[in-house]
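Re-run with default settings, no changes from the original entry. Doing this only to confirm the output is reproducible before filing.
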Amino acid sequence: MENKCADINKLLQKLSQEELSGYEFVDYWDADTTALGLQKENIIIYISTFNYTNADSYYLVIEELETGNVLKLEDNRSYHELIEDIQPFLR
């Protein structure tokens, strides 16, 4: 994505190699160059690399789009932990 930082573009490449399906990339935060959104039906997954010195650390929020109900909130996740967190929502 042109308007995103190198860490987010690196994450996009990694995600493309995972066995995740049925989602689309969304950019509700186009001014936030350190964030990425994935959406599947009524679930939105917000991933950010903001303020991490380690390039492979992520902030994660998974919520219901219509209600804003937070289903999962995690901070300082490794890539492996991030994938484990989002897999149940993207299968």
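The two ends are 24 Å apart (CA to CA). The mean pLDDT is 91.
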